[in-house]
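Lab notebook, bench 4. The sequencing result for the construct came back, and we need a structural model before the next group meeting so we can plan mutations. Quick request posted to the team channel:

Model the 3D structure of this chain.
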Amino acid sequence: MGNILERKIKTAGWGKTGGRFFCLACLSARQKNRPPVLPVFSILLAVLLLSACASSSEKLSTKETGVTEDGEYGNVLFEMDVDEFNAMGFNYGDSLDVRFSNGYTLEDVPYYTGYYNAAGEPLVIEFMGTDLVAAINYGSLWTESGLSEGDTARISLHEAGKYLDIQNALNISYEDDRDVYESDEVFANFRSVNTGNLKENILYRSASPCDNKHNRASYSDDLAEKAGVRTVLDLADSDEEIGGFMSAEDFDSPYFASLYENDSVVPVDLQVDYKTDDYRAGVVEAFRKMSESDGPYLVHCLEGKDRTGFVCALLECLTGAYYDEIEKDYMESYNNFYGVDRSSDQERYDTILSNNLVPMLRYMTGSDEKTDISSVDLESGARSYLLEGGMTEEEIEALKAKLCK
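Done. Here's the predicted structure in token form:
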């Protein structure tokens, strides 16, 4: 706010030195040994600007707003939308303080248009284009904060523009228009996972073939049918949610419907926080059913990027893939959606890896931050992750027998 104020006051004919403002016209007159002419208009304008900026500063504290839980992602949903919040004078890249009525506080957290911070760190974001939420990247802030329905929050500015460089560097979005993309496969984020010892074309991943929120469902469905998919792991949805998608007017995924009616779809209904016991238990149960079913298999969530990214990375580790193979497969989603690859946008590419994939692999393998993740025994780490979740050695071997050459 201070920098904005200084720019406006300089426009009105004033400067600043040693923490004090001075009249530029008076300084010029003194330097030329002339009597100063008082710039009355600029004085009035500067006073008005000071008053306006003070008023703007006062606006940068919200009225108390209610909060609710976003059940799927574990976010804290504010009862105001992004446009209303931004109209109060807040900007993407600002640092914010959030104080909840139950005493839980977030201090100096970034305000972004997406999950641009590291896994496990809190932030405030524009979510789904309109919603304003407080979140933990790959975590559940609602659970962490101990909030309940009826609690409220107050958001205030901590420092204007503190995280603007990161916001500008990582601000990426995608279109839901098929014509923007070079192929159905790219649009649907659909591909075969051919890494490590996996059988060729035994494991596929994609955006949702049933939830048409991003207009991709029918494309994923067509590609799944062409690939001969026989079992689907739906990481995002419950039976109730799938029923809702199938009864919607825009539902156009007949192949998915046939698999679901044949009990060949496994609704896993994971939240995004992969560090919880419930998440691990859901993954283990899904893998058990996978080992009892026939492939090819399709793994999907909504975009086929985050929950799918974790589960596919886990399967790749378990079946002997090297880190470089897992990285390439994981980052293909960011290339498909956003056009981010190492050759064209290395800064974004490396930031996404360090914020997302590397912490995932560290967690599932139990390795610390000082260890080079490419040197970790990924297969052993994945096996331990599943054993700790209750999967037996026999069940793990049965799963590998279905997947591996």
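DSSP finds 16 helices and 14 strands in the chain.
Will bring this to the meeting.
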